[in-house]
Amino acid sequence: MNSEHICDISLAITGSGGAGSITAGELLLSLAGKNSCFGMMRRSFGPQIRGGEAAALIRISHRAVECMNDSFDLLLALDWNNADRFAEEIALRPDSLIIADPAAGDIPEAFQELGVEIIEVPMKALAKDITAGRPNMVALGLLSHWLGFCSDEAGKLIDQVFGRKGEEVTGGSRAAFTAGFTEPLIVAAREARPRPERGDPGNRGTRWHFNGNQGCGLGAIRGGIRFAAAYPITPASDLLEWLSPRLEQLGGSLVQAEDELASINMVIGASFGGVPSMTATSGPGLALMTEAMGLAVASETPAVVVNVMRGGPSTGIPTKSEQVDLNMAVYGLHGDAPHLVLGALDHADCILTTEWAVRLAEALQTVAIVLTDQNLAQSTVLIPEPKYELPEIPARVIAQPTDGYQRYEITDSGVSPMAIPGTASSTYVADGLEHTESGKPSTAAADHLAQLEKRSRKIQSFDFGGHWADIRGVGQTAILTWGSSSAVAREAGARLRAAGHEVKVIALRLLLPASPEKLAGELENVSRILIVEQSHSKQFHHYLRAFYDFEADTRTLARPGPLPITPAEIVEKIENWS
Amino acid sequence: MNSEHICDISLAITGSGGAGSITAGELLLSLAGKNSCFGMMRRSFGPQIRGGEAAALIRISHRAVECMNDSFDLLLALDWNNADRFAEEIALRPDSLIIADPAAGDIPEAFQELGVEIIEVPMKALAKDITAGRPNMVALGLLSHWLGFCSDEAGKLIDQVFGRKGEEVTGGSRAAFTAGFTEPLIVAAREARPRPERGDPGNRGTRWHFNGNQGCGLGAIRGGIRFAAAYPITPASDLLEWLSPRLEQLGGSLVQAEDELASINMVIGASFGGVPSMTATSGPGLALMTEAMGLAVASETPAVVVNVMRGGPSTGIPTKSEQVDLNMAVYGLHGDAPHLVLGALDHADCILTTEWAVRLAEALQTVAIVLTDQNLAQSTVLIPEPKYELPEIPARVIAQPTDGYQRYEITDSGVSPMAIPGTASSTYVADGLEHTESGKPSTAAADHLAQLEKRSRKIQSFDFGGHWADIRGVGQTAILTWGSSSAVAREAGARLRAAGHEVKVIALRLLLPASPEKLAGELENVSRILIVEQSHSKQFHHYLRAFYDFEADTRTLARPGPLPITPAEIVEKIENWS
Amino acid sequence: MDQAAQQIALTPKDFKSALKPVWCPGCGDFAVLNAITKALAFMGLPREEVALISGIGCSSRIAAYTSVYGFHGVHGRALALASGLKAARGDLTVLVAGGDGDGLSIGGNHFIHACRRNMDMTYIIMDNEVYGMTKGQASPTTAPDWADSKLTPHGTGIRPFQPAGLALTAGASFIARGFTGDPNGLAKILVAAIGHKGFSFVQALSPCPTFRPEQMLWKHHVKAFDQEISSNPVEAAQRIQADDGMSTGIIYQNERPVFRPGTGVDNGMGSIESEFTI
Amino acid sequence: MDQAAQQIALTPKDFKSALKPVWCPGCGDFAVLNAITKALAFMGLPREEVALISGIGCSSRIAAYTSVYGFHGVHGRALALASGLKAARGDLTVLVAGGDGDGLSIGGNHFIHACRRNMDMTYIIMDNEVYGMTKGQASPTTAPDWADSKLTPHGTGIRPFQPAGLALTAGASFIARGFTGDPNGLAKILVAAIGHKGFSFVQALSPCPTFRPEQMLWKHHVKAFDQEISSNPVEAAQRIQADDGMSTGIIYQNERPVFRPGTGVDNGMGSIESEFTI
Ligand SMILES: Cc1ncc(C[n+]2csc(CCOP(=O)(O)OP(=O)(O)O)c2C)c(N)n1
Ligand SMILES: Cc1ncc(C[n+]2csc(CCOP(=O)(O)OP(=O)(O)O)c2C)c(N)n1
Ligand code: SF4
Ligand code: SF4
Ligand SMILES: [Mg+2]
Ligand SMILES: [Mg+2]
Fold first, then answer.
1. What separation in angstroms does the CA of B237 have from each of B41, B367, C98, C137?
2. A465 vs A360, A392, B22, B69, B562, CA distance in Å?
3. Residues 6+ positions from B284 with CB-CB distance below 8 Å
4. How confident is the model at residue A1 (pLDDT cuts 50, 70, 90)?
5. Which A-chain residues 183-212 have CB contacts (< 8 A) with chain C?
6. Percentage of residues in chain B with pLDDT exceeding 90?
7. Which residues does A343 contact at the CB level (< 8 Å), separation at least 6?
8. Which of A40, A502, B322, D150 has the fewest CB atoms within 10 Å, measured from its CB?
């Protein structure tokens, strides 16, 4: 095992349906938390709806990590049924290790070819001897020993998790864990290797454990969302499911709609009623929402849409990640329809960005689309409690009762005070037809221009402050990226710096409106720019070209999903610039 | 009246509902055709659904014209009811002329301010004396005299048009016409002015009289469309209405769908069945179609969508024109979804571009969006018979019965032979999920990449020939534009050339894929570029930036609708470059 | 005069806005507007506590002609917009109005789902059996042999929907039909519909003299249902089927649980944030 | 053997593709697949003259498991896709299949309009009263008190649709219900449905053991309708209302004009181009 990874280990647990690889993975990540580590976990499933093979892809480290590593140090296979399905997701190196059950048969060719060292542990047989013992708990024991985790903590965790299932299950799980933890084959193999340098113990402060969807949910309610409308779609469903009881707890509600056309219109209706409102969806659903998003823009009704990107086009690869709805989010509305597009950069940033988006949508009375992706949404992290500060953002400007109220009044800021139903004497009719200041439909050129300018100005002239991008490091080389590629780029940046390169990593959080002056400022002394994105057609690159000027030598690292971009790919591209 | 306009006169006829201004305008344009002229006519209506005030905006010229002129030489008002509604559309000059009925009361301030000469003709009173005589026919007579048209031709036309309504109506119309034609006030006023130089008589060849919607319809059926699905929307409805009986005549059919989601999916279904298929819509409808257009892209099913742009955003200004669905057409699909976007440049070009689009969609098994706008769609022209030649384009590649047929086979061209239901032994399942060559759903990175590349390559590597743009003139100054602004830019180009400027007018017909090398070639010696478009947010400009490099001094003339951009605006921008 | 008394004193005219309708002379929609404003005045509802939501179409323009809160949304989505508003603002009286195309063609899905969901709101379809706004195409209530649209030159050849029947099967808890030739009758129906707890559906036969001039004869065919309001869905279904679609009155009313999401009680964020910590 | 004889010799297995279904063990959808392939084999239809169109959902995956022409479209639009196909290719036998979410939630509008339009095709809703593919949310046929979805933790509180009733009111001319526990019975129903001239609707009760394990008890509740096929819509409506939704058999059949656009006769372009000249 590569010593540079000793305090940063990537491991995969695979197994067929029901073998419990995901459960084992989850417990291992929790244990990592209890052992002062940080970590991250992705799940990968075969095509079956349920019960097919599954892989837990885990990274455990002594520092907070925000993306997966390039390759895996260790693969534990509960069995080999269809495990080759995961071969491309679990890149092993010649110095990686495989732990497998000899009873599971031959190791698939895809893994064998590498000449990786294999430790055979009869997990099934060990479990069989234990009442209610399961091989995945043996595996958890093996891995916990390998990682040097505390077995007491593991016991407590098992009690906590399986407690409800009764004595037998809990006891069996504990026993199976111990069988693995103390298995001589592993103990010996471990001893034969350099003990992992535990290095500095991780930050002992509070750790947060959540996935990107939950992060967005939290950001949304922090921002003030109290109504949501929902139509399920992978990988956004669990964000909606997370919101439902929590909105209710906060005195709000979530309504399951008949389709996305309904859900976005419900959001607009609720927001017209004065309640900050949102929905969440993914590409195909966002496509169905663009017409109504135009209505929200034209009628100046705040609305937030979290779009969790997945592989496209069309139904594409719903369970995998890609950064390919940028085009639609930025340009997908008909007519000249200025709105906001934000992209969350990592798990913690899902909270910040969504809260910011809600506040901006409310302040600017427009649509804010938050882009995340399956990578962020459905992987969990174990990180220090995220802290952030948002700039002051005014709340929705509410009209006080006035006679002669003009809903679409031309104001300096471009924001027209909004009357909320219930307010006496300020009744008005919101309209998607072009209108005068009072809201009367109008086809006059002057009214159209005035309202177009107002809707554009309120966004263009707003001071978005320093949150438009997240910038790390300095140097003449810049990596310019967005979304979930940002964490990868940051890790690449750190590695490049460690190797003596001066690299600046710029991740755009605010995509629309664009911030050309701010970026130009950041690029002043930059001579090389690498644009990184997970899209075959280079959507981000074309977006940048449309709104920004680049003088430096600009190149792209763009490729489609489903495999995430790795830090190594970025490092290589920079190192072999020439 | 300005002598430079003598052979190119712009006139407007306004009146309240039922006054017959549109009928008079239509007859005048027909008469122009019979008098060896060319021309164009737009209609403008007040907000009432029916029966409100209406204006016929007409340009008559001895050469073919493709856009309206900057201002109007003559305004004939049948009455002044709400005529100020049209004031901004009917720009008069101090040397313009107004013909009005003294019985109609005071001339609205908007028109009075200019100090325009006014001829008062008691049209109502003249008509009153004639059984079944109507003031609008008096007006037709006045204007025909003014234009030097042949009164015999007018009589024949009246017989032809009103014949069905019986003797009384026909006779009354003829008599009213004559009353106007011979009205001493007009005869005298006309004599007091320089007789219009008739110049070279216009091309005496066959003239075509049609609007842009009809042009698209003709192009579509020439291209082979035999099925259409329809959901009405202004200003695309009359294209669909035009198609319905004609498709039936050609052995095809049109189905009225319940909504746009249905219409686009019907199109895809029919095309899957082997029948070239299309629909037509406008912004809000296109928004509802993007999800299914992604399906057509992913499943590689040819589909054509004509989108007639109107004022946006949202419901916007449905009856007026704007070039603001470019963003959505180019970028509106989720995922990486390469497809075709074409823009028709003028009325004749509606035919060419739509035929081309159908053939390309069929050859490349993808979605082709044709953009036109209300300007083109609902104005009629009287032009020489349009002739054009399209490059050779292969028909849809049909799979012959084969065992082991692979629908999504990787081929050199990127085009995979398509089996049509009914073909034995080549059954397959079209899929919007990512798939292998055989069509089996797949989440594998290699399959995804292979299919993404294929779908992109078939378009990128196709030789689109010389039709990517329409280029007029040479020079160091280029006007770069698209859609209905093209005819305006061409007229501006002609004027600038007449004034001694060397100007090249480049109108992009093929918008996606972009043609960066071809445009770069055209811009080689260009030092100044003016980008012209009718959009507040400069959609075309941003589109160009995203896909093309510009070295010249590049400026924009971009403004929203509803008023069309005029040749004079462009001329001014170039002349005052500095 | 105290405030309540002041509100009761509102006349139908007070519920009209200053805008002049764009409707053609003789359009039935004027009478729907009159009936709504009459009903609201009669019920003594404060203007600011009423919202009228509409889609796109001639009829959908109606929102702008009233003086209550309004939203003129996009085509076919009025019910969804209204459902969101009502979910978030249960205190408001929510009315929805629009055309047969808006409600039964593009909006058909929201129609059946709104009936099923049974939120407390009133939906008025201003049925002229045609798409007026787009210049006269067949709608889902158009007879199959109406051949005056260029889009379907031989007629649609398709059996029309019976909106009341569809509403019943989909779950509406109040169903009525009115006629613009009898605006007082329509206003009375609206009072009952707005008063009903749950989703009330009112089909207002509203002629389009411009594209369906033959509808000017409706006044000779329209008659009152000769039966009492039914609370039995089977009976109501029979009555709707047996009728020629021209009988007016309240057909069906049967209160059932109203959908009201959330409790309105805010228990605070505290426990939510703590879920994230391990 | 001549070609006709060869075709008749096709077995159900010949109508299956080589793909292994992604369905969970015990999923009812396997039986729908079997019933379809049995029906097609029984009817002796050539594979290439049949098209099976579906949307998105576990059930909608079915298209890929047959060996006829297929289109796995987008969520909720299968009927529209199929209607276009049938309009352009009246010669094909068109089947449509998908889930209760696909057909009654997002696809509800196409469902009622397809019933109304009465094109000659067969639509099978594989009803498991849940969204299987997205991991178990309530569908429009879910009981209001089913509280196992995190999206609606207290249940939807909304009355479910009765698909057969909706189909009837919307205009379907053939309505039946089958059960995957009786694949032969379902196959027989499908033979009748495919044979029917017009829009035939078959609700196939198809349990989802993964998200609705309690549906494994359906086999104890399902029974045959004890009445003959009705051709009277009022009678059929009553029968559907009176039933608990668990009776199987053909409920209603009543042939009425089938919608077939166009004549198929090509009279050439000539006169069209000449319209443009003056
Ligand atoms: C998405 C979309 N599709 C189509 C239209 C065009 N459109 C406007 S109103 C209308 C139908 C109007 O019919 P109806 O709802 O019956 O109202 P009416 O005008 O008859 O009162 C249509 C098709 C639109 N505005 N938006
Ligand atoms: C536009 C769109 N919205 C949402 C989804 C997500 N989605 C996929 S299948 C499905 C519902 C599946 O339920 P059902 O149709 O009953 O099929 P089942 O899986 O139960 O067989 C949903 C909501 C999608 N693919 N596309
Ligand atoms: S077109 Fe018909 S529905 Fe529309 S306003 Fe005129 S009469 Fe009324
Ligand atoms: S989740 Fe349910 S419906 Fe889907 S395959 Fe599994 S058992 Fe069948
Ligand atoms: Mg109507
Ligand atoms: Mg289902």
1. 19, 21, 20, 9
2. 12, 9, 55, 47, 36
3. A291, A294, A334, B233, B314, B315, C74, C75
4. very low
5. 206-210
6. 88
7. A326, A353, A370, A371, A372, A482, A483, A508, A509, A511
8. A502
**Which of A203, A255, A305 is most worth mutating to test chain C (most C CB atoms within 10 A of its CB)?**
A255
ipTM: 0.97
CATH number of B465-575: 3.40.50.920
Per-run averaged pLDDT (10 residues), chain D, 278 residues = 55 96 97 98 97 98 98 98 98 98 98 98 98 97 98 97 98 98 98 98 98 98 95 95 96 97 94 93
pLDDT tens figures, B204-253 = 788 999 999 999 999 999 999 999 999 999 999 999 999 999 999 999 99
For residue B234, the ligand 1 atom closest to its alpha carbon is 6
Residue A7 pLDDT > 70: yes
B2 — pLDDT class (breaks 50, 70, 90): very low
Q: To test ligand 3's pocket by mutation, which of C102, C128, C141, C205 has the most ligand atoms within 8 angstroms of CB?
A: C128
Q: Is D118 an 8 Å CB contact of chain C?
A: yes
Neighbours of chain A (3+ CB pairs under 8 A): B, C, D
HSE-up of B50 (CA within 13 Å, CB side)? 15
Q: Do B273 and D92 touch (CB under 8 A)?
A: yes
Tokens describing residue A36: 């002062």
Residue C114, φ and ψ in degrees, nearest 5: -70, -40
Cβ distance C85 to A273 less than 8 Å, yes or no, reads yes
Model confidence band, residue A202 (pLDDT cutoffs 50, 70, 90)? low
Cross-chain residue pair A33–C91, CB shorter than 8 Å: no
Among the bound ligands, the one closest to the CA of C75: 1
From chain D residues 50-69, the ones with a CB under 8 A of any chain B CB are: 51, 53, 63-64, 67-69
- Residue pointed to by tokens 């964490």: A487
- CB A233 less than 6 A from any atom of ligand 2: yes
Give the CA dihedral B420, B423, B429, B432, nearest 10 degrees: -10
| Contact between residue B267 and residue B181 where contact means Cβ atoms under 8 Å apart | no
* Cα D30 from Cα D22, distance rounded (Å): 10
How far is ligand 5, taken at its centre, from the CA of residue C126, in Å? 7
| Confidence tier at A200 by pLDDT (50, 70, 90) | low
- A8-203 matches A209-384 in fold: no
Superfamily of domain A8-203: Pyruvate-ferredoxin oxidoreductase, PFOR, domain III (3.40.920.10)
Task: Tell me if C171 sits within 8 A of C93, measured CB to CB.
Answer: no
Q: Where are the domains of chain A?
A: 8-203, 209-384, 397-463, 465-575
Fill in the DSSP letter of residue A74. Answer: E
What are φ and ψ of residue A403, in 5° steps?
A: -80, 150
Beta-carbon contacts of D233 under 8 Å, excluding residues fewer than 6 positions away, are: C241, D168, D252, D254
**Residue showing tokens 């022409």:** D69
* Chain D nearest-CA residue for A231: D106
Class of domain A209-384: alpha beta
Question: What fold characterizes domain C27-274?
Answer: Rossmann fold (3.40.50)
Q: Which of residues 515-534 of A touch D (CB under 8 A)?
A: none
Q: Given CA atoms A247, A248, A250, A252 in this order, what sign does their dihedral have? A: positive
Is A3's pLDDT higher than 50? no
Classify residue A441 by its DSSP letter. Answer: B
Show residues of chain A in contact with D131, CB under 8 Å: 232
Chains in contact with B, where contact means 3 or more Cβ–Cβ distances below 8 Å, are A, C, D
Taking the alpha carbons of A118, A121, A122, A128 in that order, is the dihedral positive or negative? negative
What is the C-alpha separation between D275 and D278, in angstroms, rounded? 8
